[in-house]
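Most newcomers find our protein records easier to grasp once they have seen one. There is nothing in a record beyond a sequence line and a structure line. Getting from the letters to the tokens is the skill we practise here. An example says more than a description, so a record of this kind follows:
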Amino acid sequence: MGQINPTKSKIASVAWKLFYEQGYEATTVDQIINECGMSKGNFYHYFRAKDELLNSLSDMFDEEYESIMEKLDKDMNSFDKLIETTRHLFRFIEERVPVDLLAILYSSQIIKKGQKHLLDQTRVYYRVLQQIITEGQDRNQIKNDRSSREIVRIYAMQERAVLYDWCICEGNYPLSSYGVELIEIFLKDFKIE
């Protein structure tokens, strides 16, 4: 399913680990390069500046979606698959992504011009959602009174809403439980009982 470059992914993973451990501002490009064990040229081939690493968070999310899809029971109810993928990602965020960095990512997506990585329909994230929702409609587990594409859009919008709220609340509630509960409440009308 994936098109994720392993070198770029390694740089992003190392950078985010350092951001988490010592903060975004305190982490230098040289530290990231040293931790990766690569040359500056190799780093700058993938990222022109440290700021560009903020956009790599969506790539990390996509890797997590690929990982959970490999682990999910193929026979699981499709609506439950949606909820489980969200629970997995929210747990990943709680454990590996500082609230302030997620907030920076969201604010950069709001104020910057041009491509918005979080809305890029070619991302693994959107393909996973499309796959699960289409499967659910085919299995008569997710309503088909709306197109799968429209349900993907609504689902992604609700997920972003919860993440945005979690950021402005400075992470003061458990995302992987309460945040997921909110998603289930918002989207319960799509589930066929």
